[in-house]
Design brief:
four-stranded antiparallel β-sheet; Nucleoside Triphosphate Pyrophosphohydrolase; 157 residues; alpha+beta
Amino acid sequence: MDLRLAAYAVCVEDGRVLLAHAVRPDGEKTWTLPGGRVEHAEDPFDAVIREVAEETGLEAVVERLLGVDSRVVPAAERRPSGRPGLQNVGIFYRVRITGGRLRPEPNGETAESVWTPVSEVARLGRSSLLDIGLALARTVPVTGHVAPVPVGGLIRH
């Protein structure tokens, strides 16, 4: 089984959330939170700031740790197929934008980044990570953990 450690930014301002339109390895586009893999020897705190800058062109500061999510994607559900199962451990931070200009990721996996009303998220084809991040931001649980989000319909791994 593969293991991926990732850091995700939850940025909600004026009823809108910052989203990234990610291009998956199979070419499918999915809405998600800005964020991604923590590099070797990188602190997740630094990784989330780096990922926001790379994917959106915006500068961010971390305001607080929201929580951690661990999910297993079975091999049969990974795209493209033929890869082993994946355990994704995601660390979620609430961030605040301090500067920069919104733009697509140059030569990257993010086709575009946009501010979207939180009320419209339920109608988007999206990663379950987006729902986890919003639930953590909304409830700020002492444990840093919320219930898993079922995958299906508009919600994907």
